[in-house]
Amino acid sequence: MTAITSRNLRDRVIGATISCFGFAYFSIFLLQFLLFHFPSSQESIPEALAVIAFGGGISLWYLGVLFHQFFPVLHNEHSEEQQNSLQAGGLVLIWVAAIPTIVFLFPAQPLLQLGYASALTVVVIGNLPEEPLYHPASDASLGEFSLRLASVILLSLTPTIHTLAESVPSSASLAIAFGWIMMTSLLACVFYLLQPLERIGLFKTWQPSLHGMYLVLTYSLVAYSKSVMQAAISHVP
Question: Which of 62, 100, 132, 190 has the least CB density, counted as fewest CB within 10 Å?
């Protein structure tokens, strides 16, 4: 059993607190949609499924992060396996966040929705790591991990770029919100990968870069969820 030091206990408590908030928020988000905005017509089923996948997927992601904070202590999980699960979880989170844009930005084009969703799903699955692509302690494989992450991000942004290029006023707010969350989350991810505070020795007893990334990501997802709910209300009668 892995010894619980004051350092990793503090890190796990901070991470668990952020994860509990995210899980609670998006569970309530999903419950609110199911209770007050569930569709009454068959035509709105794709939109409803997109919101359910978004809220439920992010809730499960936070629940997975929460378990990740403590199960390595109980089961002595190797750091490589932890890093592998984190990288895979990040790619899946991008897929979950992109689903509402694919559905709501092209409500009258089911074939385009299917094409974007299928392409993104294939790319995400194809880039899921079988072994850790990047470890914070080493820069050897940073290029490969960055390339895979960039390919998923660029494809997830394609529907947003498509919509903004067509200048559709009714969809611009959701497209801009998704672009904003991807930009801020990417900057937070780069900050974590570089770990400047830890490298210069400013913080030796905890991981501020990791917690900062989670905080920025959580704030961005909460802000983005408001645009998703507004789009759902306008598209789901």
Answer: 190
